[in-house]
Structure formats: C-alpha cells, structure tokens
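Sequence in, structure out.
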Amino acid sequence: MYNQSWFSDPTFPNNMPAIWDTHFWFIYKQNIAPLFLGEFGIKESSAADASSVAGTWFRKLMEYVGNKCHWTFWCMNPNSGDTGGILKDDWVSVNTAKYGVLKGYLAAQFAPLGGGSSSISSSVSSSRSSATSSISSSRSSAVSSVSSSRSSVASSVSSSRSSAVSSAVSSVSSVQYTEISIPFTKDGAGEFYWKTKGFSTTQNDYSHYINSWNLDVLEINGTSYVNKWVPTFQIPAASDGYWYIRYKGAYSYSHLEIR
C-alpha cells in the first residue's frame, strides 16, 4: 500500500470516510448510480496485525462500505506478488486473517428461482423420498457398470498416454530445446523451446504448478496447456524423463510461470 498522506493524519482512520465520500462514495450517498468497488487487497501479515496502517485501513473500509455496495477483493489465487491471495501457496488452505475480516460482509447466497423458499422446501421434501428411492435402486447397477468398464478405460488411458508421450519425444528431435531449472518465469513476445526434469510429480502437490496468460501456444510434451493453471503432477513426463515446453506469445505481457 502506498504511504498516502492521510495515513499519517492524527485522526486516522476516522478521517477516511470523508476522503472516500469525496472521491467515490458520494455516488452511493446521492443515489446517482449503482456502485461497484473492485480490486482492493492486503497482505495476510497486515490483515493479521490490526494495529498496522494497512490492517486498520482495511477494517475501516469494510466497516464503512462492506455491506452497502458490491465489491470484489484482490485476490483469490496465492500467486499475486503484491498481496498474495485468500488461498495459501498450497492453493487449498485459507488465509484466515483476511477471510475473517471479509466474512461478515460477503453477499448472501442467491435464492433459488421458481418460487419462495417455503414452496421450494416443501417441493424438495416431497420429492426427496422418491428421488432417494430411485437413486438407491439405480446405484447398484450403475456401480456395477462402472466397475466393469473401469479396467478397460484405465488401460485405454494408459496406452494413449504412453503413445502421446512417445510421440512428443519423437517430434522434438528436430528442435533445439534449452534446458531450464525450476522455478522459471518468462514474460514477453516470441517463440521459445525449453526442456526440464524439474517438474514435481508428487500426487496432490498443488504448490508446484504451471500458469500462463496471453499466450498463443503453450505445449508440454505435445499437449496444450495454453492460458491455464495446472499442477505439475498432472502433466506426465516424456519417456526420457523430460518435459518439453513450447512457448509462443505475441505480447510484451504474455506470461508463463512454472513453480
């Protein structure tokens, strides 16, 4: 957070509402138009320290506008360098200090369409027993069908994966790949070819991943992962143990990161 002059005012944070009123909150107060407040965020360490300037500002902002207008918080994903995310680096656990402040101001769940809650509840209740009965009667046959087909599907997936990886290895023989180490980041336009043995293959390890945006091509061992977030354990290595990466971007802000 930039150290604005009003943060050092002796009346901070009680001076903030008047500043917000001047810059944007007059729209709400004067009922000029709907107001949407977007992309404000804070580091977890600041949110956890209620006496910090950023933590104090954050709490005051939510207290003043949090349940009166629509807003979005920056951000959910943990790989934002300036604030981090609601999620921790494992992409599963929650940063509780930030979420704890926001929780009381989250929008209510939308009511279902097609009638009031009482009629919906009664409809759901009346149909639940028949639905349960139908599900129960079909479950055994469905499970049996899944069980009988699982082995053939697994063998098909296994055989297609090995052939796809083998094909990827054979197709890279004519291209010069530069070996890279992980972590790795690339920004910018151009077409590049890299290879690495550094991908994590630990199952359910979501702290190691690829992420990209504004790319035309991102292929790893012949499979497209363009403009996606994917944990690396879900990306099989080639038969020689390498991951072969093709990057093609048209912009200065084309981006790839591998963790």
